[in-house]
Write a structure and sequence with these properties.
Shape: globular
CATH architecture of one domain: Orthogonal Bundle
CATH class of one domain: Mainly Alpha
Distance between the termini: 56 Å
Helix content: 40-55%
Radius of gyration: 33 Å
Strand content: 5-15%
């Protein structure tokens, strides 16, 4: 490995990553080598623990990200070298300075004076021959500036007066000060530490901008501004309603920069001071503000993407019901309920429509038809989409008095309508309309949420905030990484998986996934993992990366149904042989497994971490890491928002976690908000530390605003329900003033009124629809 170090990662980058991530050089170098060889994060984390020192996926991904960023940094430095060299400006001293730069900001600051510029006031002054005057003023000697500037004025020189000459010289100095690396570094630090983010409403747009009312005159330290606030203000600015600024106190900036350039108090120094202040106001300040806008945006994006990714992970890893014969219903009033029958693997067997809400006769006919379906297809579970009419449909189903063994479950259908109209759905069900496709998706989500949700663009699942405002490439990269992590962490049934699911398996991708499905269709089910090598274009490398994450139940080799990688089969064979048995018997007998001494089988490449993973798999081959499914039921008799009363204690399911709290489905077609101040009896800094998407919780209703369909909830053990608060629930009662959408208020006291973000609540409502 030592011979290839420089090819894998430059030594200075290795040192940087080790220092920043606090990781040993051996682990970083090994990870970099594996990435260079085409390994994926899940494969490295699972099957190369000896090489990396058992780094987890987070650390491995962080190493990959830093390698990529440092390569981009090197590429930018090379581009600067090339630009300077082409213009004959690359001196040995300048090259050394650029080579020593450790950050992109430092690199750009050094390059700033040499960047090709458009024609500026300074270049015009230089063309008029005023640069020598600027140099004289900068010496800040005792000579009077008027006397110094006189020789530079005259019609022949294009400078009308001595004052014009001084003004031109100040323009040159202003640009020089603005381009100075030390000045830029100091200014950047002031902007970062003392910059104030402020927003104002655009003149004459107060009425149109009502949803941003909280930001009509807002200010706070930029360094402490939370992600959702930054993104909300930027959205208001983008829509033309707000003006956003990031500025530090002027006195702080001048106090930090004047010592760099001012020497003395004479008339010449005054000219330098005027030039500096002009440079700050006209050049350096705007440049730093632009940087800070980008920096705060990047920070806000990172946090918003982190929250989105965490929510997505929890949703993807929600408990599966497993292989059960299922009747799935997409509820509806006027157009009826779409009913589909799925076999245990999720294959569509039959579809129909029933009308339980049209008339007594149709209600009876609907019940009889469903009972007939349940008996004929030996239904084991019923999935009901949680959209419009879901609670009414659930009540109708429960009134049929079905056997207790048949699970009745309301399923989150967020994104089902997007799937039903997608190319994926059209390809799978070309002769079925979107209502049937949507019902199928609802049923399959109950059987295996992960397998069904991977067919959707993660952004359409509805567990993010400001997802259209953040960097889209960074969002996609993060969400794709989460999906890949979840898919490989759970494992994939090779003979039943869709091509969308297979595409996220380590080392496969969309094209190989399509090839696998085509091969499977033409040749029948795979009988062994090694058979994958017969799939067109699937070579040894792809097999190495993917095989351990693919499962074959009842295959030729007993370990093909486990997470043991084929490369480790000889080790398990040796274990079985030493115990006088075969692998199949070893898997069935825990008492034999307990006699295995892993140290005996350690080699130079296979150490205790991998051997312990192998023993864990022998104990529970192909185990699903997701939690066991438990049937959840909303409170009976609470089916719409009008049924709610302050003080009610209800079960619910977390549907989204944001920086300001959590949205909870309590079964009334409108998510309620548990504000961050109501998540626990103690102070909560990060809602994700308390709740996760798909988590089951118990909440207390604080307030209901019927007109605006707003519900305030609490998870405190003894939330305060004041008489005034309770009175707001009644129709026609006085309601609290509406808070603007997208505008987060300061954190309220536990018993405050509606402190909700209408934009986020509208997002929850859209998921309902």
């Amino acid at each position: 490995m030592a011979a290839t170090v420089s090819e894998v990662i430059p030594h200075h980058h290795l040192e940087t990553i080790c220092r920043e991530l606090a990781l040993p050089a051996r682990s970083v170098l090994a990870t970099a080598l594996l990435f260079k060889e085409g390994a994926t994060v899940p494969f490295i984390a699972r099957y190369r623990k000896e090489m990396t020192g058992s780094l987890d996926e987070v650390a491995i991904a962080a190493i990959g990200d830093r390698i990529e960023k440092l390569r981009e940094f090197d590429a930018r430095r090379e581009a600067i070298f090339k630009s300077l060299d082409e213009r004959s400006l690359l001196t040995a001293e300048l090259k050394a300075s650029l080579s020593a730069a450790k950050t992109l900001s430092a690199l750009e600051d050094i390059y700033q004076p040499y960047k090709p510029k458009k024609r500026t006031r300074a270049t015009i002054a230089k063309e008029a021959g005023l640069e020598p005057l600027a140099d004289l003023l900068l010496t800040q000697g005792p000579d009077d500036p008027a006397t110094l500037s006189a020789p530079f004025a005259g019609e022949a020189k294009g400078v009308k007066s001595a004052e014009d000459a001084l003004a031109g010289a100040r323009d040159i100095l202003a640009e020089r000060f603005s381009d100075d690396p030390s000045a830029r570094a100091r200014a950047r630090e002031i902007y970062r530490s003392e910059g104030v983010l402020s927003s104002k409403v655009m003149l004459g747009k107060e009425a149109e901008a009502a949803k941003f009312k909280d930001y009509f005159d807002w200010s706070e330290p930029a360094a402490k501004a939370p992600s959702h606030r930054i993104l909300a203000i930027r959205r208001g600015e983008k829509e033309g309603f707000l003006l956003m600024r990031i500025q530090p106190p002027e006195a702080s900036l001048t106090a930090a920069l004047e010592p760099l350039f001012l020497r003395g108090r004479g008339p010449a120094s005054e000219q330098v001071r005027l030039a500096l202040h002009d440079g700050i106001k006209r050049l350096l300040g705007p440049a730093m503000e632009t940087e800070m806008r980008l920096e705060t945006k990047a920070r806000a994006d990172e946090e918003a993407i982190r929250v989105f990714a965490e929510n997505l992970r929890e949703l993807l890893l929600a408990s599966p019901l497993g292989q059960r014969r299922t009747l799935a219903i997409d509820p509806g009033f006027r157009t009826g309920c779409k009913v589909v029958i799925l076999d245990a693997q999720g294959k569509l067997l039959h579809h129909d429509v029933v009308f339980p809400d049209q008339s007594a006769l149709q209600r009876k006919e609907a019940g009889d038809k469903l009972l007939a379906f349940i008996k004929h297809f030996q239904i084991e579970a019923i999935a009901i989409g949680n959209g419009t009419a879901s609670r009414e449909t659930e009540a109708f189903i429960r009134a049929l008095k079905l056997p207790p063994a048949i699970a009745i479950v309301l399923v989150n259908e967020s994104g089902a309508s997007i799937y039903s109209a997608s190319e994926v759905a059209r390809e799978e069900f070309p002769d079925k309309d979107i209502t049937v496709r949507g019902a199928v998706s609802i049923g399959r989500r109950l059987l295996d949420p992960l397998a069904e949700l991977v067919k959707l663009d993660p952004k359409s699942i509805g567990v993010g905030q400001y997802q259209h405002d953040v960097d889209q490439s960074a969002l996609k990269k993060s969400l794709d990484a989460v999906v890949m992590s979840c898919v490989n962490g759970v494992g994939v049934e090779l003979n039943t998986a869709s091509k969308q699911l297979l595409a996220y398996v380590s080392g496969i991708g969309p094209q190989l996934a399509e090839n696998i499905v085509k091969f499977r269709d033409e040749n029948g089910p795979f009988s062994s993992r090694r058979q994958l090598l017969k799939v067109p274009r699937l070579g040894e490398k792809a097999f190495e990366q993917s095989a351990g994450f693919l499962r074959i139940r009842g295959g030729d080799h007993p370990l093909d149904a486990s997470a043991v990688h084929p490369e480790s089969y000889p080790i398990v064979d040796a274990m079985a042989k030493d115990l006088g048995t075969d692998v199949a018997e070893l898997l069935r007998r825990p008492e034999l497994q307990s006699r295995i001494k892993p140290e005996k089988y350690a080699t130079e490449t296979i150490g205790l971490p991998t051997l312990k993973d192998i023993l864990a798999e022998l104990a529970r081959p192909g185990r699903d890491p997701r939690k066991q499914f438990e049937v959840f039921q909303f409170a009976e008799g609470v089916e719409k928002i009008a049924d709610l009363k302050p003080g009610m204690k209800l079960p619910g399911i977390v549907t989204n976690v944001t920086a300001f709290g959590a949205f909870v489905d309590i079964g009334v077609h409108q998510d309620g908000l548990v504000h961050i101040s109501q998540l626990a009896d103690t102070f909560v800094k990060d809602p994700s530390e308390i709740v996760k998407v798909a988590q089951r919780v118990h909440v207390t209703v604080l307030e209901i605003d019927l007109e605006r369909a707003r519900i305030a909830l609490s998870m405190r053990s003894n939330p305060e329900i004041s008489p005034a608060r309770a009175g707001k629930a009644a129709p026609g009662a006085a309601r609290p003033a509406a808070r603007p959408a997208s505008a987060p208020p300061p954190r309220p006291a536990p018993a405050s009124g509606f402190n909700l973000f209408d934009a986020a609540l509208n997002q929850a409502q859209q998921r309902r629809n």
